[in-house]
Amino acid sequence: QVQLVESGGGLLQPGGSLRLSCVASxxxxxxxxxxxxxxxxxxERELVATITSGGSTNYADSVKGRFTIFRDKAKNTVYLQxxxxxxxxxxxxxxxxxxxxxxxxxxYWGQGTQVTVSS
Length: 119
Prior knowledge:
Blueprint: E1 3-7, E2 10-12, E3 18-25, E4 28-39, E5 46-52, E6 57-59, E7 67-72, E8 77-82, E9 91-101, E10 104-109, E11 113-117
Parallel strand pairs: 2-11
Antiparallel strand pairs: 1-3, 3-8, 4-5, 4-9, 5-6, 7-8, 9-10, 9-11
């Protein structure tokens, strides 16, 4: 079974930096794409950034120039480097992956990691 495990969340002040990581494990044949989403209480989950197996990236307008997504293919790991953090970045951040496994294609989600930006 596929597992996605996030780490790196925490509490920090505005203007700070934080790096999130997500490791995919299990019977994975290939990874089509990985990404990060976030959800604040009472709001819809929104896309933050994605990266394909070929290295193409997409970012939400609200994080462009501040966040960077990158990956380590050998470790099946994706990272989100966050800088110049703002209070409005406060949310639970979820890792996702589009994978090919023994059961076929599927989209998988991690359990989430809390990021809180506050003075």
